[in-house]
Each structure stands twice: as C-alpha cells, then as structure tokens.
Design goal:
Helix content: 10-25%
Oligomer: single chain
Structural class: mainly beta
Strand content: 35-45%
Distance between the termini: 26 Å
Strand order of the largest sheet: 1-26-25-24
Number of domains: 1
Shape: globular
C-alpha cells in the first residue's frame, strides 16, 4: 500500500530516478540516562577529547547546567553550571563544545558570544555587532533559524552562519516599509541567502554566499522565513534549505561556495517550499504563511553526517494534504543518503513514531535518535532516552 501511495503521488517515477541501496538504518540498542531534565537538541551533542568520547546534554530553557557523560560508558563525567551567564539575563541559544574546559554560547536578543571554562566562569565575552564590516547587516540572533548550531568550528577557528534573508521580512527596526528596506539593505537582503562570518584575528569577516539567489533573482519574492541546516563533513560545510532542492558545499576556510548538488525525493517532483511574492499583505501575514507552508511538507529539514564521514543523511518531509494535517496523520520521514563523495545513493523511509528524527546526535559507534517521552502521567520526565542506530 505504501508503494502504491508513492506511485500515485509521484506520477511517472521514471522521470525522477532515485537510487536505492541494500543498506538499512537499523536500531541496535536503546538506553536512558537519569539527567533530572529532558534534554533539548539545541544544547546537546557529542565531542571527542583525545581518545575519549563524551555525550553532553542540557536544556537551558528549564535547567541551568551542562552535563557531560562518558560515551559509550554513560558515566557522568562533570556538570558545568551556567548560572553566571543566565543570572545576567541572557537567553542562550546554541552551543559549541571545543572541549570539557572550553565552551562557547550564542544568545538570543543580544549579539554576544561567550566562552566559559569548566567551572562556568566567563573567560571571554565578545560583542559581535561592532566587529561586522561595512557590508554586513545588523546581527539579530533572534532571526536565526538553523536547527543545528549556527556556531561551528573549522580547523580550530569559530565560524558563524547567519540568515540574511530575514531582513527582508523584518526590516530594520527604524524602517517599516518594503521600499525603504530594499533601499537600506539592497536587493540581496530581500533574497533568500545566507551570510557566513569567520572570527579570524578578532574580526568578523563577512561573505554573502548568495546561495539561494536563483530562487529570487529580481528580489520580488520573500521566503517568509528561512529554515536551513548544515553540518561539517570532512573539510567542508554542507548546507540545505527548506526553500531549495540543493545541497550546497562550502569551503569555510576560504568562505567560498564550491559545489551545488541537486537532491531527488521520490515523493515529490521537486523539493522545496515555494517562495511568496512580496506585498504589504504578505509581509503582514508572514507568520501565518510560514506556518502553512511548513505544514505542507515536501522539503528538506535536517542534515547530519556520521562521525566517520562515510555518509551524509538529509531528512525530507513527505507532502501533507489538508486532510493529513487535520487528522495529524504520521507518515514518518525519508532519509536521503549520500556516500563519502556526496553522491546520492539511497532513500530510506523512517517510520518510528516514538523516535524524534529531528533530535539526532552522531556518536562514535553510530547515530543516536532521541526517544519521545511516553504519554504516561506516571512517567518521570527527568531522563534522556536514546536509541542507537547504524546504517549497514
């Protein structure tokens, strides 16, 4: 029945060949950790220090500490208090762990990059806005929409990835019209595009990658809101967007776009959320338009690679009809899988309702998927629950 659905949805599948593989994403094991809170994907991950691996878990929306556990041993290694930062009123958005004694945080509603030590002391505090060059735009971290970290390390240097497109939806605070916003930012900031910064030599080096300009060459469309995802793969940064069917391969060292690779998904003729014409009415209703477009599916929404850099996994959402949305029909997700040369090699339907396919942590021996908490009033939500998968 599932095969029939795909054929009906896709029409002539010969027009859109999708490679398949004999490999499968298999569940190997599951475990839970008594954390005292339910971890959140923005603050959780895996880091290797020397020959040791550590799982770090946090949920700074409800808890004020970062916890490290040995992996795969699952023994608690240390807990780092974040009260010093949080008591100053800063809401922390995402995290980059360089080691157990060097951790960086970005925040929302301010432009400060913090570095703390293993005691939670602030050892570096950097206001990013004065570092921006003349071609950059106001760095409003509240507009970041990356499901993964907007802050990442490459060859020991920190980089920041920002969404330039949102300035076309939410113009500069002192300017409220589309015409003035266009004049102030220039047409490229009304296009769906990304901006990549490096923090080399204490300055923010800016490069507008203009990754998605072909969608909007004349600046006449607005992307409503830009979800994008990225991950590190070997010496490159990989980027996808909900508004594009393309995998963008970026060299962070030189801030250059090296390759664009179109993705294929058997459930749709073309991946991506359609952009919306710019108009005062559409701008006023951008939140509603964004919600409606995201609920319809048919786009790329997550991106990660295994720790050995053998495979890249791109999550694609199946298209949803109005009836599907009303009935909250769960179709699962699809993983578009690429080999080490970034060649599309497989598409796998992942149907596990109890598994959060958006909370994924690649670890040394596979890939951890967060398990959703059971709908049981007697269940204590003070645990982290994961399933270990391998693609083999």
């Amino acid at each position: 029945m599932f095969t029939v659905f795909l054929v009906a949805a896709c029409g002539n599948k010969e027009e859109l060949p999708v490679p398949r593989s004999d490999k499968r994403l298999l569940a190997i094991d599951s475990f839970e950790i008594q954390t005292g809170f339910t971890p959140f994907h923005l603050y959780s991950g895996f880091v290797e220090v020397g020959d040791s691996g550590y799982l770090y878990l946090a949920n700074l929306l409800v808890h004020d500490s970062l916890h490290f556990y040995t992996y795969p041993g699952l023994k608690k290694r240390k807990s780092i208090p974040l009260k010093t930062i949080m008591d100053r009123g800063y809401e922390l958005y995402n995290i980059q762990v360089a080691g157990l004694d060097s951790i960086m945080f970005l925040g929302r509603y301010h432009n400060i990059l913090f570095t703390i030590d293993d005691k939670g002391n602030i050892i570096n505090e950097r206001d990013l806005e004065p570092l921006c060059d003349a071609d950059s735009f106001h760095v409003d971290l509240d507009l970041l929409k990356g499901d993964h970290q907007n802050l990442f390390m490459f060859n020991g240097k920190p980089y920041l990835l920002f969404n330039a497109a949102n300035s076309g939806i939410k113009p500069h605070p002192t300017r409220s019209t589309v015409e003035i916003a266009r004049k102030f930012y220039g047409s490229r900031y009304l296009d769906p595009s990304l901006a990549l910064y490096s923090l080399t030599d204490g300055t923010l080096r800016f490069d507008d990658l203009a990754l998605f300009r072909p969608l909007n060459p004349k600046g006449e469309l607005m992307p409503v809101n830009m979800f994008y995802d990225y991950c590190r793969f070997k010496d490159k940064a990989l980027i996808t967007s909900a508004y594009s069917d393309t995998l963008y391969v970026v060299n962070p060292e030189h801030l250059t776009l090296e390759q664009t690779i179109p993705m294929r998904f058997s459930a749709v003729e073309k991946l991506g959320v359609p952009a919306t014409p710019i108009s005062p009415e559409n701008l006023a209703n951008s939140s509603r338009l964004f919600t409606e477009s995201m609920m319809q599916g048919g786009y790329l929404c997550n991106l990660f690679a295994d720790r050995k850099n053998n495979y890249v996994f791109i999550t694609a959402l199946y298209p949803e009809t109005k009836e599907d949305i009303q009935k909250k029909t769960y179709k699962g997700v699809a993983f578009i899988i690429l080999d080490e040369n970034l060649k599309q090699m497989d598409e796998e339907h992942f149907f596990h309702p109890a598994t959060d396919a958006g909370f994924v942590i690649p670890v040394s021996n596979g890939i951890l998927f967060s398990l959703d908490m059971p709908a049981n009033p007697n269940f204590s939500e003070t645990k982290a629950r994961f399933a270990l998968y391998r693609y083999e």
